């Protein structure tokens, strides 16, 4: 059966919408423009939306006609007319209302999810084309929120709010017309109650919006404190700060509890007040109708019954529309955040006539290269350097001297601000991007492992590699021995980025991946910075094997791992301070020699 109020869903118990945690309504900057873009983005995925519009109109018609038919039933009882016929019409109306709403949900499920599937796929597909600089400017959690929460907000609005908004809009218009047809005088009196409800809603929501904003802020502070406490629990225990941690948590938790209670109590005022106004309005209309009936101004008791039912359901949709509009604003604000990503420029495409790089020799030359992530603060300053094919080069220097930046420029995660980088005599920007990236095998300090088997992680760059090739790569990297000790060997599935393995074991797997890639140019970015000395020696032996007969660039803090390099580059303040072999640099007794002696003395002291 339809709801008692004539088919309109009950109002929100608290009288205001609280989308998301904390109930803060995110307001869009440009609702009209964003809706136009959203409409354009979903082109071709909106098939069936016309049926939703028609069904919303029919659902409203059921809500509009049911009080009128009920009035006719009352009139039929009083006059002795065919009551059964009227009741049959009323039953058919309620049954039709149920069927219409079922069809609404059925069509909306298909349309809404098809649209959201397209938006999410478009957003994810665009993100993979964006340059590394974009991800450096945005936190990963923020991007995940846009891909999940913001898209889900749009999904909720499309699936629920849109149909309700259409239905309520048709319902209010239809009920108002029917009330005018029944009695203009009583309709004018009813509008007074609507005005009071508008005033109450505006006054209370103005207060609650501030409280819910404060609640969201306190919730964020509490979540941040919980995250820090859990991630740093070992440090907290080591320094005996458990009591202080609990005290800080309790203080933030108490602040959140206090503001949440105020917000919920304040928001709870609206529904009881609205009911009071509705009841007073209902009583006033009932009294006026009775007076008019007694005085003979109204002769049809069914008209009075119908009008009273209309009054009952006329005011309720206004508060619901306010709730829906808040949800709608949040969804449009989420759409704006999605479009901010879609508006980001992807990596520059290959230029017309880009060169193929089928068999690179690995001859690299930096020609007066200057680069800065911020144009006003260059990281590399006029770097000129030649690395012949097959040379093993090590780059050392203090943190922030530009070591990793050189790797980012070589792999074209960024392009130089001025100057050029040549590979086999041609500018990197002249090659096809995919060919260029395939020329490099990269082992980073941060081990990137996926929730897949060890075999799949090693063969990530070559998914079709056979087991023998995978095993040979692991043996070369020195990873085969610990892999075989695992319960399922190479078929062991890693969880949480391989956190069940030690840092050294994870690093050996990334080296095995680089070995299998068999790229002519190898880059190892501080591959031994987070491992013990025993594992360091394993990695060093693996590095010597895989660097043989190929151009290799090694960034290392531990200078003992790069003594055998053909060329050592010392960076300082974005410039090349020294370069040469280990022996040559030690003879010069410059910056490298000082760094090496300091580190050697420290390691000797640690061993004692």
Characterise this structure.
- 61% of the residues lie in helices and 9% in strands.
- The protein has 20 helices and ten strands.
- The strands form two sheets. The chain has a six-stranded mixed beta sheet, sandwiched between helices. Strands 2-1-4-5 form a four-stranded antiparallel beta sheet, with helices on one face.
- The radius of gyration is 35 Å and the shape is elongated.
- It starts with 30 loop residues before the first helix and ends with a helix.
- Mean pLDDT is 79; it is low at 1-23.
Topology diagram in text:
Blueprint: H1 31-41, H2 49-79, H3 83-127, H4 132-137, H5 140-182, H6 184-231, H7 233-238, H8 242-267, H9 270-294, H10 301-314, H11 316-342, E1 364-371, E2 380-387, E3 392-397, H12 403-410, E4 418-423, E5 426-427, H13 433-438, E6 440-443, H14 454-458, H15 467-477, H16 480-485, H17 503-517, E7 521-525, H18 533-547, E8 551-555, E9 567-572, E10 575-580, H19 582-588, H20 591-607
Parallel strand pairs: 3-8, 3-9, 6-7, 7-8
Antiparallel strand pairs: 1-2, 1-4, 4-5, 9-10
Helix pairs in contact: 1-11, 2-3, 2-5, 2-10, 3-5, 5-6, 5-10, 5-11, 6-8, 6-9, 9-10, 15-17, 17-18, 19-20
